[in-house]
Design brief:
The chain has 145 residues and is of the alpha/beta class. The chain has helices at 13-20, 30-36, 49-67, 84-92, 104-114, 118-130; strands at 2-6, 26-28, 75-78, 96-99.
Length: 145
């Protein structure tokens, strides 16, 4: 089964996966990939653009391979703002879309305390794209940060 976990930055997407994925599942998380590809002491977030460039390529390769295995194991993919084209692709794989959203106020507080100011713009874009649509129920309460 393919699980596509979406939501604004600092919403708790990785926390949701940590609570649901088993050790033998595949987890494709750009933050984890970037940490795996950088040296000791590299930040958990706010990575260098060149590190992100390498990590994005690794993410695409991992996703391509994992999609061939979704009938044999569970794949958890973090995709903050999937495009219509990406959503159509995930639908072909019968993906379960999980929206993690503790609310805009909480997200903005988390970003202010532990993320780059650039992430405020990403979160604002995420919320602006969702305005006017009904909010899906969050499958699990996010942790207290």
């Amino acid at each position: 089964m393919l699980y596509v976990v979406t939501g604004p930055p600092a919403a708790g997407k990785t926390t949701w996966i940590d609570a649901h994925a088993k050790p033998d599942d595949v987890v494709i998380d750009l933050d984890r990939i970037t940490r795996a590809l950088t040296g000791p002491g590299a930040p958990n977030w706010n990575q260098h653009p060149l590190h992100l460039r390498v990590a994005h390529r690794a993410r695409y390769a991992a996703l391509d391979e994992a999609l061939q295995l979704v009938d044999q194991l569970d794949v958890y993919l973090i995709h903050t703002m999937p495009s219509g084209k990406a959503l159509a692709k995930y639908k072909r794989y019968k993906a379960r879309i999980v929206v993690v959203d503790p609310g805009e106020t909480i997200v903005m507080e988390r970003i202010a305390s532990m993320r780059s100011p650039h992430m405020e713009r990403v979160a604002a874009r995420w919320y602006n794209a969702r305005r006017g649509r009904p909010r899906e129920a969050m499958p699990q309460a996010s942790r207290a940060w």
